[in-house]
Amino acid sequence: MTEPVFSTLYELVGGEETVTRLVAAFYPRVYQHPELAPLFGVEMEEIMRKQRMFLTQFLGGPLLYSEEFGPPAMRMRHLPFPITPQRAEAWLACMKEAMDEIGLDGLARDLFYGRLTQVAKIMVNTAG
């Protein structure tokens, strides 16, 4: 028996279903986190929709985010928000907990979380 072959990380993590579940597990944590909550507005549903679109594209799935909003340019889009190293770590901790909650593990999790760690570092725009 041969192992399935995945052409993208999006497929490896489980595609749309996994991304949707992850975002649903992630944002309640963000909105409850004392370091992160001040950065987010009241429109959690819209933020979650954009995150689903971005993560889909980020993982190699359909280019949903770019089709609606243009190139992601996430660092530029987040410059108005003070993102400290502590906030980046808090964001990653919330993501790790969300991955735990939905049972995302193994190689898919390792690769995905590794990429998110790189993004979190790039997003830091203030020392604190």
Structure commentary:
- The chain is mostly helical and 128 residues long.
- The protein has one domain: Globin-like (Orthogonal Bundle), CATH 1.10.490.10.
- Helices cover 66% and strands 0% of the residues.
- The chain is built from seven helices and no strands.
- The chain has helices spanning 9-13, 15-32, 44-58, 64-69, 74-78, 85-102, 106-123.
- The longest helix is centred in the first third of the chain and has 18 residues, at 15-32.
- The mean pLDDT is 94.
- Keywords: Heme, Iron, Metal-binding, Transport.
- GO terms for molecular function: heme binding; metal ion binding; oxygen binding; oxygen carrier activity.
Q: Which parts are unreliable, with pLDDT below 50 for 5 consecutive residues or more?
A: none
Number of helices: 7
Span of the ends, CA to CA: 53 Å
Q: For this structure, what is the CATH class?
A: Mainly Alpha
Helix residue percentage: 55-70%
- In this structure, how is the largest beta sheet organized? none
Query: In CATH terms, what is the fold-level topology?
Result: Globin-like
Give the second-level CATH assignment, the architecture.
Answer: Orthogonal Bundle
The number of domains: 1
How much is the average pLDDT? Answer: 94
Oligomer: single chain
The CATH homologous superfamily is named: Globins
Fraction of residues in β-strands: under 5%
The Cα radius of gyration reads 15 Å
**Number of DSSP strands?**
0
Which descriptor suits the 3D outline?
globular
Structural class of the secondary elements? mainly alpha
Order of helices and strands: HHHHHHH
